[in-house]
């Protein structure tokens, strides 16, 4: 008896299912449209990088070039100046990431695993440092970096970015370490591990996703920084990618194919890194960066 | 004796872990902050070997400078407009991405929608200069749709430049709000929605009466953070419009940079920089009060 579904009920169920399908289709359509609009500026950049300058503004606009024009990429990849921008950005990005990861993880471990006199104040201090306007620091940094003899060197940039990246590393790593139960530490301590041993041998392997997302975020921060890179370096040999691109604007004026080709090449490292680990980074930003 | 020693070293352990980080942060923030205040009390710092102490003269000069007030006004417009744009687009897209769709599709759309946030400001500015160019795509679309007959100089017209800047800033900044709101959405207990559904609540009703009240602290914290960051934002403005045309989009940060590295008036620049610091300190205190409750 119970197998037999009442006709009225059946039509209702079918209607409901149909409505759900329609709703889902509408959501997909809306998402596809919105995503296309939001990603369009990036697609257009790639498109322009593959067109000769004479076609940059040709009408009607074509997203897909008629023929692929690789001259912009060829020019940019063979020019030693652009190679030096890229190398500088890699050196600074990797150095800042490594340093802030080590120093930040140590501090995060202290915050996460100990209650001590002044811990709240210290934590608030770290959070506050994220809020200090970088533009306020620019002029005194200029003075300090010149005083230290680090003007127009990559060391000056590394030191500066380390200060900006450290608070984020500490807060993000602290958020991750807090999610690991303290039982892990206790078991290891009973087995004779020192606090540093607990951190390195027990916690870090578990916190690997957190380390990866913190590293990627730090690298992104250093790779994309513009203001201090502009003010604290002077010679072409010390310029990083963002400043390099901005100088092309003045230098080449209207060579959109080259500018966009270098923009694409200069964005690739962060784009690839982010796509590879975006699952971790998105989680990490919300776990550490926002929720304190 | 040994137990006392051991106790002392154990007590000292957390400080040892914190030492390198706090020393670097302390030294590289407190010295420059002290310096910038000092610079603002002297005349001709950096360019002259022996600058003269002028007290608060730089500040009184600033207060009577219409250029400063107009940059301050632009900063307020830019900051409030940007934060509103980020919030509306970010929360809207978070709700859309969070809708009932396949998890793989959600991951795909989410990672695509985050993209504007990971590019460096120069690339963002160049992209939009291209699109907003009088001969660019946006003017072509507007003319094609019959909304304008003449192409508009979006970044070059003083009446339009701020709107264009807000468009660019919204595009660049919404992903941070979207991601924060999305992760906040996961923390809202399902039972609340189920209870609302039993009461016959629709989408908007659930959004207004369940989602928003539940996420109020998250929204408040994120908006404040966004405000603090946008208030002092330099690269996007400098690279998109350079503060122009004229001074139509000059904000306090670009004014500071112009005074220091274009006009070499480091004392005046330091004074503007200190005024930025004071205002963001006020918002930071508000943010910390919100955060301290959660620590």
From TrEMBL, chain A:
Keyword Cell membrane included in the entry's annotation: yes
Keywords assigned by UniProt, alphabetized: Cell membrane, Membrane, Sugar transport, Transmembrane, Transmembrane helix, Transport
GO terms (BP aspect): transmembrane transport
InterPro entries membership: BP-dep_ABC_trans_perm, MetI-like, MetI-like_sf
PROSITE patterns, per the entry: ABC_TM1
TM helices/strands, residue ranges: 25-46, 90-112, 124-148, 154-177, 198-223, 259-277
Gene Ontology annotations for the cellular component aspect, listed alphabetically: plasma membrane
Main location group: membrane
Pfam families in UniProt: BPD_transp_1 (PF00528)
Record's bilayer topology term: Multi-pass membrane protein
Protein name stated in the entry: Multiple sugar transport system permease protein
Species of provenance: Marinovum algicola
Automatic annotation (TrEMBL), chain B:
Membrane recorded as keyword: yes
Protein's UniProt keywords contain Transmembrane: yes
Membrane topology: Multi-pass membrane protein
Chief place where the protein resides: membrane
Keyword annotations: Cell membrane, Membrane, Sugar transport, Transmembrane, Transmembrane helix, Transport
Family membership: Belongs to the binding-protein-dependent transport system permease family.
Coiled coil start-end: none
InterPro entries linked to this entry: ABC_transporter_permease, MetI-like, MetI-like_sf
Top-rank lineage group of the source organism: Bacteria
Domain ABC transmembrane type-1 residues, every copy: 72-287
An annotated GO cellular component: plasma membrane
Name recorded for this polypeptide: Multiple sugar transport system permease protein
Annotated TM spans: 12-34, 71-96, 108-131, 160-182, 218-238, 266-288
Compartments where found: Cell membrane
